[in-house]
Amino acid sequence: MSPRFKYRVVDTKGQRFEGSIDRENEHSAASVLRASGYYITKLSLEEETTVEKYFSNLTYKTKPKDLAIFCRQLATMIEAGVPFMSCLTVLIEQTENKQLKQVLKEIKFRVSSGESLADAME
Predict the structure, then answer these.
(1) Residue 35 to residues 17, 62, 99, 111, 118, Cα–Cα distance (Å)
(2) Predicted TM-score of the model (pTM)
(3) Blockwise average pLDDT, block size 10, the chain, 122 residues
């Protein structure tokens, strides 16, 4: 498994994003971010965390009700034939939960960078 790098970036519209990306080295991570049209403001190796710690943080900030609404809305849009990336864009705009919104932004970024949906959601 590749190391994970934390990043903070700014897009051409001035909107800020932060997240993490799995790449072989810092140079490779920076290349992917730049190729996606982002300006890097911070890029560093992420400390290893346990799965339990990650999920405990997520469950405190993301309520089961928010996840259920997200899943229902995503399923409805996909069944209606809306392209997946468009679904994510709409859900990011509509989501009020900050933690869930950040996770969705990272998933969208990672999928648009060429990662599979399964890897992005991992």
Answers:
(1) 15, 31, 26, 14, 22
(2) 0.54
(3) 84 87 88 90 76 50 80 92 92 87 86 82 77
